Amino acid sequence: MATTTLTEENFASTINDNDIVLVDFWATWCGPCRQFGPVFEAASAQHSDIVFGKVDTDAQQNLAGALNISSIPTVMAFREGVLVYADAGALPQRALADVIEQVRNLPMEKIHAEIAEQQAAQQNESDSPEA
Fold first, then answer.
1. Catalytic residue at 109?
2. Cα–Cα distance for residue pair 48/1, rounded to 1 Å
3. Residue ranges of the Thioredoxin domain (predicted)?
4. Would residue 96 count as lying in a domain?
5. Catalytic annotation, pick one of 15, 20, 33, 96
6. How many structural domains compose the chain?
C-alpha cells in the first residue's frame, strides 16, 4: 500500500477509521526526512493492513503545531484511535519494523480500560467541590 497524504481535513478521520496508522511528519528541506522516506515507503508496501500517512509540516503547520511536532522527522503510531508511540528521528528499517510489531501486539483492551479509568478520575476531580 502506498502512503497517504494527511492534512487537517483528513487526519482525525484517518486515525479514527483505521486500526493502525503510522504517521511520518516531514519536510522537503529536511535531510533526515529524505533518508527516512524510502524506509517508510518500503514498510507501507510490506504492511497493507496498516495506513502509512505522511504530513508535510510546511504545508500543514497548524496540524503539526496541534500535535506538538518540534523536530522532524517524527513518527507517530496510533492504534484504535489512541496515540501509542511518538518519537523524533529517522528510524532504520529494523527499528521501524520493531515499532510496527510492538504496536500490533499491544493489549488494546487493557489500554482502553486504563484510559477510561483516567478519564473517570479526572471527571470525579472536576466534579468534586473544593474544600
1. no
2. 5
3. 1-105
4. yes
5. 33
6. 1
